[in-house]
Amino acid sequence: MGRRRRGDPVSGWLVLDKPVGPTSTTAVNRCRWLLNAQKAGHAGTLDPLASGILPIAFGEATKCINFLTDATKTYRFTIRFGISTTTDDGEGEVLAESASRPVAADITALLDRFTGDILQVPPAFSAIKIDGQRAYDLARDGQPPEMKARPVQVESLSLLGMPDDDHAELEMVCGKGTYVRSLARDIGSLLGIPAHASAIRRTAVGSFVESGSISLATFEGLCHKRSGLEALKPVETALDDIPALAVTGEQADRIRHGQAVRVLNFTYRDDELICAMHDQRPVALARYRAEWVEPVRVFNL
Fold it and tell me: Which end of the chain is more exposed for a tag (fewer CB within 10 A), N or C?
């Protein structure tokens, strides 16, 4: 007999506006404790010094985490010119300093070189695993690993302004695995000026945006009033970009039991991922193959 999970069977998404300070894991654990939820996870790590959108999945929503992890993300960030650091942000030790500063035209002229499919070297202080160990653990032990360049996609990159000679504010829309800290470092390097990311804020993850987010303090207040569940969004919210298929009650029962169902006159592409729905509730993530809908992940809702 399996061990019973502690906590309540909560399912849904919390679009948390993470403050600067806590790690993503700390924020998730805090929210899980506040709801007394059985299971929780997050879609895309934010550094402790970064703020912004941290989608937290509870219960059945954790089955959708991969779709948000791969989703397009938007960041607003500030580059501090004249100083480079070991962590490529303001927390690390100073590596180099310079009195040189760029002007806006210098920065704008090179942004195209960081747009599209590019190769990027992640920061040594990152969660990437090297021979089974986190890169940041090796770096903290005085053995910073040699990080290899990886392909990433930057859909757009624009200069928002320069509040003073030392700082530039930018916005980036990018794909999975893109490091803002690396981008700040590399822009400075191309300009011949030491630089690091002094502020990072994530403003969107897929369809989750700032206007639909909630601060940790506000969420804590709701939970103290026993109204925390009101802040959760439905499980299917993360699947807005996946085509939905309405199925009958009989078909839903078969899908929930892992059985494929035949759907005639279905016009989606072969092998396309879809979300089977019944009574406006998700039944399963499924694949459409030759007029058959085959369940991939079944939701227990």
Answer: N
C-alpha to C-alpha distance for 118 and 196, rounded to whole angstroms: 19
Which has the closest alpha carbon to 111: 184, 199, 44, 11?
A: 184
Q: 232-286, pLDDT tens digit by residue?
A: 999 988 888 888 888 899 999 999 999 999 887 667 777 788 889 899 899 999 9
Catalytic position from the list 17, 47, 89, 186: 47
pLDDT, tens digit (0-9, with 9 covering 90-100), for 16-61: 999 999 999 999 999 999 999 999 999 888 989 999 999 999 999 9
What is the value of pTM for the model shown? 0.88
Go through the domains of the chain in sequence order and give each one's CATH number: 12-70+207-237 (3.30.2350.10), 73-203 (3.30.2350.10), 242-298 (2.30.130.10)
Rounded to 10 degrees, the C-alpha dihedral 202/203/209/214 comes to 70
Q: Cα dihedral sign for 183, 195, 121, 182? A: negative
Mean pLDDT of the chain: 89
Active site residue 47: yes
Residue 1: its pLDDT value, please?
A: 47
**What is the full DSSP assignment across 229-262?**
GGGPBPGGGGGTTSPEEE--HHHHHHHHTT--EE
**Among the listed residues 203, 191, 166, 195, the one whose alpha carbon sits nearest the alpha carbon of residue 111:** 191
Give the chain's count of helices (H) and strands (E).
7, 19
